[in-house]
Design a protein that fits this description.
Elements (H helix, E strand, L loop, with lengths): L8 H14 L4 H5 L4 H10 L17 H8 L10 H22 L7 H10 L4 H11 L18 H9 L1 H4 L5 E5 L6 E4 L4 E5 L6 H23 L5 H4 L4 H15 L5 H18 L4 H11 L4 H12 L9 H14 L17 H9 L21 H8 L3
Parallel strand pairs: 1-3
Antiparallel strand pairs: 2-3
Helix pairs in contact: 1-5, 4-5, 5-6, 7-13, 10-12, 12-16, 13-14, 13-15, 14-15
């Protein structure tokens, strides 16, 4: 722990107060539907003409009380104006996340509008980049054993256990059937969660290792070394930066493909369809029939965007990648973004906190960033030409 000086005592107290309030607020734990498989079957049985009715985990805490406690923090007692402004932004951010959680699947598009406030909407530039990527055809993986989906979840767990030795931290691994993605990280539990009964390819395991462990768990464990909980709970606007870093790790490790870039582009197109007022079936028709993506992958992408009533987070992966790649090209080090759940916008604030003696050095570097292993020139060309 860093020394808690009387000068910063109030900062640590407020930081700890907020941490107690937000430690159970992990949006992805609430936004993933519980009945994905049943609704998928009904959707395909009805020939794409049925809007799925997803069910979600119930909230078992008093959301109104939590909002009130957020705004009762004594921010005026923080003398440093930069730190005071930071925690004001943090409170608004976490309150916005709580608004998302408490309105999941509620009528009247409440979750959708809260999601827009929290994650924003795809910009014209993001949609233009997505369409640019979709002009490029997938690589052929026919006959390539690396891309054959035949590895069980049990064998995948053994694969990821190897990464506990590669990275000097110990994370848990469990499975869940209530997931739209093949894998995700629970920051709160320091846990890698794999989709139950999913068949992985070796390529997918490699991607997930660098994305989920190499960035998301690296930042989780780096944050746990810091005295301020904000590094664990997340700076405002951290999603775009963190997902950008994670996809960039795929690139640096030599695992980023045209197919993966197209997937990120489809997510932007799906989010854009959502904000134009299209429902699940209309967005699916756009992705599957007009853009030609196979029905299973199209369903997964549309599910991710339409869950909860409209979730625009997925549009940020591509813009995050573009920003991180641009930073890499300019030669700027990534370490300050790996100290925890940091964001590009608040990097100057992290620098200020460091000067105040409130930040410890990086404990766990991202091994994916140590050397550029990308050999795909078409991927390189696409990244160089994103706007």
């Amino acid at each position: 722990m860093l020394p808690t000086t009387s000068e910063h005592q109030v900062v640590f107290e407020i930081d700890e107060n907020i941490h107690r309030l937000v430690r159970n607020l992990e949006l992805l734990a609430f936004i993933n539907p519980l009945n994905i498989n049943q609704e998928r079957k009904k959707f395909f049985k009805e020939k794409y003409k049925y809007n799925p009715e997803f069910k979600y985990r119930k909230i078992r805490f008093d959301t109104y009380k939590l909002h009130r406690l957020f705004f009762s923090q004594r921010l005026k007692d923080i003398d440093d104006p930069i730190i005071r402004e930071l925690y004001k932004d943090v409170i608004y951010t976490y309150s916005g996340m709580l608004q998302c959680i408490e309105t999941i699947s509620e009528p009247g598009n409440r979750f959708y509008f809260n999601s827009l406030r929290f994650y924003g909407t795809p910009t014209d530039k993001m949609v233009e980049n997505a369409r640019f990527i979709l002009h490029h055809e997938d690589e052929s993986t026919d006959g390539n054993p690396m891309f054959e989906s035949k590895i069980s979840t049990y064998d995948a767990i053994e694969f990821f256990n190897e990464y506990k030795r590669i990275y000097d931290f110990d994370f848990g691994i469990k499975t869940s059937s209530a997931m739209s993605a093949a894998a995700m990280v629970s920051n709160k539990d320091q846990m890698l969660i794999l989709k139950k009964n999913h068949l992985f390819s070796q390529h997918q395991l490699n991607v997930l290792a660098h994305h989920e462990i190499g960035v998301h768990l690296v930042t989780t464990f780096n944050a746990s070394e810091q005295s301020l909980n904000i590094f664990s709970n997340g700076f405002p606007n951290n999603v775009e930066t963190q997902e950008g870093l994670a996809v960039f790790a795929e690139y640096m490790s030599g695992n980023l493909t045209i197919s993966r870039l197209r997937e990120l582009a489809y997510r932007v197109i799906a989010a854009d369809s959502l904000i134009k007022g299209n429902d699940f079936t209309e967005t699916f028709n756009l992705i599957h029939n007009q853009y030609g993506l196979d029905q299973d992958r199209a369903f997964n992408i549309v599910l991710r965007v339409h869950r909860g009533g409209g979730f625009t987070k997925d549009a940020l992966y591509l813009s995050g990648l573009q920003k991180i790649y641009s930073r890499y090209q300019s030669g700027v080090n990534m370490d300050s973004l790996l100290l925890g759940k940091c964001s590009l916008e608040y990097e100057p604030v992290v620098t200020h906190l460091r000067k105040q003696g409130l930040v410890k050095p990086l404990s766990f570097p991202c091994k994916s960033f140590q050397k550029n292993h990308n050999a795909n020139q078409q991927v390189e060309w696409i990244l160089e030409n994103l706007k």
